Amino acid sequence: MNRTQKMIYISLLSAQAVILGLIERSIPFPFAFAPGAKLGVANLIIIVAIYTLPFKDSMKVVWMRLLMTTLLGGTISTFMYSTAGALLSYAGMLLVKFIGGKRVSIIGVSATGGILHNLGQLLVASTIAQTWTVLLYLPVLSFMGILSGIAIGIAANFLMDHVTTIQRFKKAHEEKKSDRRKQKMAETLA
């Protein structure tokens, strides 16, 4: 994969995440017992980015999605909530993927992201409200985060198995990681 192909791939992932985020924003809240809960469909694209791109490039997808979604109809407060949720979710998914390795599936990584996204947003809300009682809503949102994370993880798993472009980028990403490991081992032995 050359530099131009990678840039186009990053741009396409970012555009897809923005479109999914805007579509989801236009749909009324689907969960009456958990006001504010959403499926987090744009997270599907972030998971694909995590599994097919290096850290720096997948982080670009996250930031481009946040900025473009805010510019296309958000406010400063939605940007603050989205940024806190997205960055905490992203960091948690990377950590679980790295530590869990082959033992944790895409579904587990996605469920982690769903929980941490809600936690990030509640932390911002509690900071703005200047009270920690907002965090009492965390169990309800965590339950919804797990359910939506499982659904998004299943969809991401399907995409990773059936979309050839994603498979090609995942293979290139894994080969590059393998080459870096071999190079580090050669350097330590030398």
From TrEMBL:
Gene3D superfamilies xrefs: 1.10.1760.20
Tagged with keyword Oxidoreductase: no
Keyword terms of this UniProt record: Membrane, Transmembrane, Transmembrane helix
Residues annotated as transmembrane: 7-23, 29-54, 66-88, 136-160
Keyword check for Oxidoreductase: no
Coiled coil: none
Entry protein name: Gx transporter family protein
Species annotation: Alkalibacterium indicireducens
Phylogenetic classification of the source organism: Bacteria, Bacillati, Bacillota, Bacilli, Lactobacillales
